[in-house]
Amino acid sequence: MSEITSKKNILLIGGGGYIGTSMMDDYSKNTKISKINCIDRLIYKSQNIDKKIIRNRKINFFKGDFRNRKLLNKALKGVSDVIILAGLVGDPITKKYKKLSENINYIGIKNLIKFLNKNKNLKKLIFISTCSNYGIVKNKLADENTKLLPKSHYAVSKVNIEKYILNFKKKNFCPVILRFSTAFGYSPRMRYDLTINEFCRDIHKNKELVVYDPYTWRPYCHVKDFSRIVFKVLISDNNIVRNQVFNVGSNQNNYRKIDLVNLLKKYKKNSKIIILKKKVDPRDYRVNFNKLTRILKIKPKFSVKYGIKEIFKKIKNNKISKDHGNHIIKSDVKK
After folding, report:
1. At what angle do helices 304-316 and 257-267 cross, to 10 degrees?
2. Nearest CA to 122 among 226, 231, 11, 31?
3. How far, in Å, CA of 316 to CA of 308, rounded?
4. Is the CB of residue 113 less than 8 Å from the CB of residue 174?
5. Tell me: the pLDDT tens digits for 229-283?
6. Topology of the domain comprising 8-182+221-250+286-301
7. What is the distance between the alpha carbons of residues 316 and 215, in angstroms, rounded to a whole number?
8. Exposure string (b/e) for 231-241, b if CB count within 10 Å is 16 or more?
9. What Cα–Cα distance (Å) separates residue 74 from each residue in 11, 61, 71, 161?
10. In whole angstroms, what is the distance from residue 200 CA to residue 312 CA?
């Protein structure tokens, strides 16, 4: 597989979150990336940008809404490739703020893509989607051709944007869609409303961990692996990745919640765990990631076991003690 050797100047739209700050941290050390622009509204009540990251000479941070065309044009100056992470992220927050999530996750992103297509200098546009789009898949692994059955407002918007990108005519950029697994691991902007991170925190703090839907499957992926795989897409030849959809994760990191609990018990004995079979989330899917390895010649490095050890160690060393997550929108956000 041929790779692009010229250095990259990237724009992370919505790069101030859990995954984006990890990307900025990783890419600031990457010699093949010259410039990292980031635009983010910092919409969540607990959300602030890590000053250590934006002090890096490679990084330019633009605080504000990506729907602000004047600000967006500033952030796009000198940029070769765009990665769209922006949006209200997660099922609970999009359910809580339905109108806002519709305005950002669907209408806002759709208009953004239309606007970006006017930029003749743009090489790749990478849209971060989700494996949650599969909804429920029984007795098999979902691959990129599996029927999408989104069960949440969040996933419905992702599916609609995927369709919009793939059906978009006369594209001036090379579009790539990445369906991310459920994230875990340490990030400069930590989230504890993600399954593995939340389980680790509650067990470490001797809190009672209540587990719903224990036998439902999900795929998981470390935030550092997301950075590695997005970079691989950035440097891949356009002819290989154009209009492609990739599941991002690894077959080995498909787990049921009960499996995660059993792993955690090995690291923290006498944990207070209550297993409830009550259905609160209908999603249940395992995912096949063979296309990622076959075409891009890359696969994730970091296992769930690694992530559990990492989170426990960080909490023990008081690195990530605050309860950050995508829970509440800041009071000044209107639309």
Report:
1. 50
2. 11
3. 12
4. no
5. 999 999 999 999 999 999 999 999 999 999 999 999 887 777 888 998 777 788 9
6. Rossmann fold (3.40.50)
7. 29
8. bbbbbbeeeeb
9. 11, 11, 5, 24
10. 6
pTM of the model: 0.95
**DSSP, res 201:** H
Domain ranges of the chain: 8-182+221-250+286-301
CA quadruple 313, 178, 87, 70: dihedral sign: positive
Amino acid type, 39: I
The angle that helices 304-316 and 195-204 make with each other, rounded to 10 degrees, is 40
How many residues in the chain? Answer: 335
* Rg (alpha carbons) of the chain, rounded to whole number: 19
125 pLDDT above the threshold of 90? yes
E runs forming strands in the chain: 8-13, 33-40, 59-63, 81-84, 124-130, 136-142, 174-180, 182-184, 209-212, 217-222, 244-248, 254-256, 273-276, 284-287
